[in-house]
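My main concern about presentation is that the manuscript never shows what a single data entry looks like. Each protein is reduced to its one-letter sequence and a matching series of backbone shape codes. For the editor and my fellow referees, an illustration may be useful. For illustration, here is how one protein appears when written out as sequence plus structure tokens:
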Amino acid sequence: MSMHSSSTDSRVGALPQPYLLFLGDTTEPGYAKTAFGLRDWAADRCVGEWSCGATVSTGLTTLTPVEARARGARGLVIGVANAGGVIPDGWIGALVEAMEAGLDIVSGMHMRLADIPQLAAAATRLRRSLIDIRTPPHDIPVASGRKRSGKRLLTVGTDCALGKKYTALALARAFAARGVAVDFRASGQTGILIAGGGIPLDAVVADFEAGAAELLSPAAAPLHWDVIEGQGSLFHPAYAGVSLGLLHGSQPDAFVVCHEPGRTHVLGHPDFALPDIEEVIDLTLRLGRRTNPAIRCVGVSLNTARLDADAAQQLFSRESRRLGLPVADPMRGGEAFDRLVAAALEEPARG
């Protein structure tokens, strides 16, 4: 499997790998989700971790920038996504030290690295790159709506932050294990860092959302699959626009609905009830048919991290019977996930 979104389109830039993961002075594990995502899905591209007082750890080897560079590291990745996406003054010295050791700096924060004078000056002096992941390409076309060759699967959700990225990654890995030609296509900051390329859909001007999705998943060989990381939810009061643009531009042949059992309201929007899985399937089919009349739902991915193994298995069976679809947690694997993978790869019935 290739995870490099730059593999078929030179306009999606590759990143300096392997990485040294920077944890700053983070004390809240939830804020280190970028570092944990890289550890879980791109461990072969992570040489170690480094911090300036953090109490959280990925469990990777602690290395200074000089030590990491000696082990082949090319980029220091800010593995933190804190509230507001800010880079504190207390990190500046450490980031300059990394550049002095020969590392480029990679960030998925909202705050731009080059907007920080000390970092900009050091980068110029040391001829190092400051790379902001949340910067889309400059030449995104308006979507054409034309059907492209190859096959595509998109993960969609009942809400944000419940497993669309992990589901897409797990499906791409499972496709590859079955000998299927596949690329994981990243549409968010952590996914881009894992893949080594991609387009941050949440930073694209609205008129070009669908065009960006077309660019992200270009024409491919007839039996090649792109597994595309979903964003937001069609039912989200703030982010539905990103989800719709990604759906129209992806033109998926197949989609998987991602959901966290027990979540009842939109994260951060307590006045909005979460849609049912059936509602998401129905709306995705109706809207998705605009650019791919053959779109089909192939199953459901449940984030059962809060359940024990027996409760999870019972839930998969119950929901599968109720929905008439494969239901699984990709992170648990097993027979339920094998059924979901098989359904995704199955040719739709004809006639």
Q: What stands out?
A: The first helix runs from residue 33 to 41. Residues 4-12 have pLDDT under 50 and may be disordered.
